[in-house]
Amino acid sequence: MSKPVVECKDVSIRYKTGNLKSVGLKDFVLRKMTGRYNVKEFWADKHITFEINKGDMLGIVGTNGAGKSTLLKAVTGILAPAEGHVKTRGNIAALLELSSGFDGDLTVRENAYLRGAMLGYTRDFMDEKYNEIIAFAELEKFQDYTFNQLSSGMKSRLAFAIACLVNPEIIILDEVLSVGDGAFRKKSAKKMREILDEGITGILVSHSITQVRELCNKILWIDHGNQIAFSDDAEYLCDAYEEFLYTKNLPKSEKDIKALADAYQLRHAKAMREETKKETERFLKILEEGDAEPAVEAALTILRKNRPEALKANYRKVY
Amino acid sequence: MKKLITKWINRFQKYKFLFSELVKRDFKQKYKRTSLGMVWSVISPLLTLFVMKIVFTEFFGRDYPHYTTYLFSGTLVMAFYKEATKNGMSSLVSNRKIIDKINVPKYIFLLSKNVSALVNFLITLIVYFLFCILDKISFGPHMLMLLYPIIMLTIMNIGIGMILSALFVFFQDMKYLYDVFLTLLTYLSAIFYRVDDRFSESVQNLFLLNPVYVNIKYFRTIVIDRMIPSASYHLLMAFYAFFFLAIGSFMYKKYNKEFIYYL
Q1: A50 and A197, same structural domain?
Q2: Do both A43 and A91 map to the same domain?
Q3: Staple partner for A161: which of A95, A137, A255, B123, CB 3.0–4.6 Å?
Q4: What distance in Å separates the CA atoms of residue A91 and residue A171, rounded to the nearest whole number?
């Protein structure tokens, strides 16, 4: 049994907010003297515990302001948790808000190298990978343009290409799988699948539950900084989470989660049934209203395919 | 001790590439859209010198030998100090987007600014020596001692840059305060006037409280007077350099995890 790649034990993160950002020197001195200077603290994450192993893809779900991005910052080491500890084993490529951190005055080529350097790679490695990255990002014609001249889609494409193609051991994706136009999105989803199949470890934050269901095998659900659940039964937790989004009943225990998941299944089944019914009705209507001959022919084809026995029985009755 | 050194070497290896890319970026940002590019590092100190020479030779320099070299020594050192500390001050804030997203050691941004300032300084130094030849300064092995103030000044710049950049994260006012301070410092550094018998002995000693002046004086003593300052003078310079470096390192150590909330 190898050690977990990312280990988060009882992690609590305290964020400092309040007016400290806008306070100037004069205000600071005045407030210190009058005792009105207090830094507001708030716990962005409380007692989060999870671990993921090699090849796992963890999906973090939760409503806005749940503390997902803050947790990712702790995993990448940007923020130090106030309590608990985070341990990571391997090279991390973080994609927290893609196109930030690039420099507008540098060219595409220079930015690619700079980003590679920040992710901890060597020059030789970047020399080797550079052409592949540019080809993937479809920026061959723009290599010597400065970053300010690019469209935002192009910037995101480059960021995505660098993070994916440099073979990180851990990849962290924060709402980034929906960059670029339709064609590129398809390509990036395919690439993502590919590198996941190679056994990369990842963490994905996304508001698209469909995406989470598709890519993740472990789910961490947080709400306002509190850990609601962590499980490797991804489908089950996704069910519960989707039901929560529908009913807004925050589960308080395992039982509540189970109830939510069951409710989702029920609702889902019902919805499916209704959907089928609607669909059938629609088709029936088309058949009824259509030209007699093709409609009858279509009906017969369907019957032949799906219910040959009914066709036989009726055939005898009619003729 | 050995462990600590290997740790530092490993770290250096790891961030060597990032470091060189950052230095490159600093240069590109500095000379973006200028047709002369790097040549400006030579021209701009020359123009400053030219202005000062025209203005001040009339007032202060008529009776002094090697007044041009005297003036140039002052502007040269002062320009290096100014560039390194001013750029160093903004090194954290201007890279906030990177610091907020990617986990890299924060001092690396400050160091890259200091290296580009040092490179600029060395280019100007070549021009300085050309002017020394024109001013009929005699060269000799004693000139090698100029390495000492350059090293000390670089260390001090890094230290002061650390202090300023940390403060600048918390107080945006620092930029304006420091500009005012720099103007004051320029006038107190005896760039165009002389610290001689016009001042009483105690006032002359007060000048030694100004670390930039101390470095300027070292330059002049070596180049113009062809003398090597006393051992205690060397110690004073080392004290300034490591004093500021210590305070700066302490501040970085203490506030390293705090910066992120304020950036």
Answers
A1: yes
A2: yes
A3: A137
A4: 8
Nearest to A20 among B32, B104, B262 (CB): B262
B 175-194 residues inside an 8 A Cβ radius of A: 177
Closest CA to A92 of A67, A118, A61: A118
B123 in Cβ contact with B42 (< 8 Å): yes
The predicted model scores a pTM of 0.81
Does residue A181 lie within any of the structural domains? Answer: yes
Q: Does A42 touch chain B (CB under 8 A)?
A: no
A157/A277 same-domain check: no
pLDDT in tens, B136-153: 888 888 899 999 999 999
pLDDT band at A315 (very low <50, low <70, confident <90, very high): low
CA nearest to A73 within chain B: B101
User: pLDDT category, B178, cuts 50, 70, 90?
Assistant: very high
Contact A100 B261 (CB under 8 A): no
Please report residues of A whose CB lies closer than 8 A to that of B170. Answer: 28
Measure in Å the smallest separation between the Cα of A111 and chain B Cα atoms. 9
- What's the confidence (pLDDT) of residue B109? 92
Single-letter residue type at A183: A
- Cross-chain CB nearest to A77 (options B21, B100, B103): B103
Domain residues for the domain of A305 are 267-318
Window 94-133 of B: residues touching A by CB (8 A cutoff) are 97-104
A230 and A295 together in one domain:
no
Counting Cα atoms < 13 Å in the Cβ hemisphere of A116 gives: 27
Q: Which of A80, A101, A122 sits opposite B257 (nearest CB)?
A: A80
Compute how many other C-beta atoms are within 10 angstroms of the C-beta atom of residue B57. Answer: 15
* Inside any domain, residue A255: no
Q: What is the DSSP string of B183-223?
A: HHHHHHTTSSS--STTS-HHHHHHGGG-HHHHHHHHHHHHH
ipTM computed for the complex? 0.76
Is there a single domain that holds both residue A188 and residue A44?
yes
**Mean pLDDT, rounded, of chain B:** 88
When comparing pLDDT for A250 and A32, which is higher? A250
Residue A198 lies in a domain: yes
- Decide if pLDDT at B233 tops 90: yes
